[in-house]
Amino acid sequence: MKSREISRRAFVRDLGRGGLAVAVLGLTALSCSDDESSGETTVAPTSQPAVAPSTTEGLLAPVTWERVNLGFVSAYVLARGGEAAIVDTGVAGSEAAIEASLTALNLGWNDVGHVIVTHLHNDHQGSLPAVLDLAPDATAYAGQEDIPEIQSPRRITAVGDGDTVFDLTIIETPGHTPGHISVLDPAGTGLLVAGDALNGRDGEVIGANPQFTSDIPTADDSVRRLGQFTYDTVVFGHGEPVVGLASQQVATLGASL
Ligand SMILES: [Zn+2]
């Protein structure tokens, strides 16, 4: 149910970005297609305003993002409206690479409002202390059960299902670690930052790595959970991003586990 809600909201946001011109074109296309399929010639224009965007929520732009490719692991910088959220921080010493991604987005450390750590493993939390020192205004977030194992110079805010950070949806995805979380930008076509709940291999989505996963049945449940949301792109701690109908791949994967 939740996934449908989010999917519908993303759809409305898409319309919002396109504006009225697209809505009018859409009406024309709909009329033509109805003519062909049903033979009916009357499609009342008055049926359109039901999907027309009318709230500010419809104007939310999708994030632009940069992958901080650290070799065997990646962190991500998500930007929207001149502000950034960093998701994962790589191993210790990754702050220069993260800064380069901020620069690529025309942003600096002072623009970082949020640092989300998907889970406690060192290749994801290693540079959190350095990042928080460099980004004085940033709040740190992680899943409740992983927080005691994450080193941080400031308090870490516990987040889970039902929470949003920077208009990003937090999804609890335990299994790889007990407090693992994933991050979804539902705006536009959708972007999922999956941490280590999923991995990329040869252009495809695979599940959590059994070698480093504490509870595989729970991790498999989390894969199925992620398959219930809608996003075109998924990015991972390990592996190349998958772009194009990504959530369908995850749903298929989940059904196979
Ligand atoms: Zn991990």
Short description, anyone?
This protein has 257 residues and is of the alpha/beta class. The protein has helices at residues 2-38, 95-104, 122-125, 128-134, 216-226, 246-256, and strands spanning 64-69, 74-80, 83-87, 112-116, 139-142, 156-158, 164-165, 168-172, 181-185, 191-193, 199-201, 204-206, 233-235, 242-243.
Order of helices and strands: HEEEHEHHEEEEEEEEHEEH
Amino- and carboxy-terminal Cα gap: 22 Å
Structural class: alpha/beta
Q: Could you report the average pLDDT, rounded to the nearest whole number?
A: 84
Bound compounds: zinc ion
What would you report as the Rg, rounded to the nearest angstrom? 20 Å
Q: Give a quick account of the main beta sheet: strands, pairing sense, barrel closure.
A: 6 strands, mixed
The overall strand count is 14
Query: Unreliable runs, pLDDT <50, ≥5 residues?
Result: 1-55
Order of strands in the sheet with most strands: 1-2-3-4-5-6
Q: Could you say which overall geometry the principal axes of the C-alpha atoms support?
A: globular
Tell me about this structure.
Helix content is 31%, strand content 22%. The chain is of the alpha/beta class. Strands 1-2-3-4-5-6 form a six-stranded mixed β-sheet, with helices on one face. Helix 5 (216-226) packs antiparallel against helix 6. The two termini are 22 Å apart. The model is unreliable at 1-55 (pLDDT under 50). Zinc ion binds at residues 119, 121, 176, 196, 212.
